[in-house]
Amino acid sequence: MKYSEIGKSGLKASLVAIGAFGLGGGRIWSDTNIDTQQVALLLEKAIELGVNVIDTAPVYGLGDSENLLGNALKGKRQNFILQTKCALNWRDQSGRLEYERDGKKVYRNLSAQAVRGDLEDSLKRLKTDYIDIYITHRQSDTVPLEETMGELLKLKSEGKIRAVGISQASPEILETYAAIGPVALVQEKISILSPGAREKYIPTCEKLGVTFQVYSSLEAGALTGPQALGRTFPDGDIRRNFKWFTQEMYPHMAEMYKKWEPLCKKYNCSYANLAQAWTLNQSPNINLLIGVRQIESLVDTVKVLDIVIEQADIQKMYDDCDYVREQAK
């Protein structure tokens, strides 16, 4: 395993992190059926492999993901850097209505009171007395950022959180946060099919010494290989509207995979590893967050850290996706 510091927090994190959205994501992950024992086995494998970062959030299954992890982490908490989030809750109707899911209305609220309330709820579900990295899940357009960051810094001074992160933001929002207090991590989407963040956001993180934690580098599974093409999902599943799974994109994605096949043979790796390697290649500041539900997926993901892909092949992969990205517009 390879490790790097998360921002300037002093936390030494594995370059591969476990994303727990799918562990208890409610009906939006229609093929999820996992219990505490299975999660505990997954975490035991993570410890064996040296993976020491877990990311979750209150709204992942409306508490289910945090509850599962809280039970599975018994006796293992000290082995992990634990991340969870604030901003989205269903306790009351304060804030702005964000969406309705699994029979609950979820509100976005980054007021000081809501941030603290979210944390206290998460601590109970996760059965811990502190969170290593506490992340604003989405950003508010009604609460002053100074209020939000001020409360996060208070929680840090109280020892309830160890570092601050932000998600679904922008380089400008990051700079505003960072002007008030230290931000260790930003969590944003980037993939070889959705590479936009590398233009400005990643350079901003590098300038400020902030870790860029990537999610959805495999586009919810669409970049795991040809076997993912043309998959269909029931109403309500988050992947149902992902353009990469549509029949219209099928031939373009199939052609992309055909071009990648020789690279898989050259580097003796999976298609997923190729996509992950391209992502890691974008910056030395990157931490790779992978949604994991099966031990086999975690084992395969870790293999990417031993793969050194030639720069010419990294560029070829990107060029091979040009037509796919163009057709998806």
Topology at a glance:
Blueprint: E1 3-5, E2 12-14, E3 16-19, H1 36-49, E4 53-55, H2 64-72, E5 81-86, E6 88-89, E7 96-101, E8 104-108, H3 112-126, E9 131-136, H4 145-157, E10 161-167, H5 171-180, E11 185-189, H6 201-208, E12 211-215, H7 250-267, H8 271-280, E13 286-291, H9 295-302, H10 311-320, H11 322-328
Parallel strand pairs: 3-4, 3-13, 4-5, 5-9, 9-10, 10-11, 11-12, 12-13
Antiparallel strand pairs: 1-2, 6-8, 7-8
Helix pairs in contact: 1-2, 1-9, 2-3, 3-4, 5-6
Give a description of the structure.
The chain is α/β, with parallel strands linked by helices. It has one domain (3-226, 273-306): NADP-dependent oxidoreductase domain (TIM Barrel, Alpha-Beta Barrel), CATH 3.20.20. The protein has eleven helices and 13 strands. The strands form three sheets. An eight-stranded parallel beta barrel has the order 3-4-5-9-10-11-12-13, surrounded by five helices. Strand 11, helix 6 and strand 12 form a beta-alpha-beta unit. Helix 2 (64-72) packs across helix 3 (112-126). The radius of gyration is 19 Å and the shape is globular.
| CATH fold category name | TIM Barrel
- Given helix and strand content, the structural type is alpha/beta
- What is the correct CATH architecture? Alpha-Beta Barrel
Q: Briefly, what CATH class?
A: Alpha Beta
Largest sheet: 8 strands, parallel, barrel
* Biggest sheet, spatial arrangement of strands: 3-4-5-9-10-11-12-13
Number of helices: 11
Write the H/E string, N to C: EEEHEHEEEEHEHEHEHEHHEHHH
Number of domains: 1
Rough outline:
globular
What radius of gyration results from the CA coordinates? 19 Å
What oligomeric assembly is this protein in? single chain
Tell me the number of strands. Answer: 13
- Spans with pLDDT under 50 lasting ≥5 residues? none
CATH superfamily: NADP-dependent oxidoreductase domain
**Helix proportion:** 25-40%
The proportion of strand residues reads 15-25%
Mean of all residue-level pLDDT scores: 92
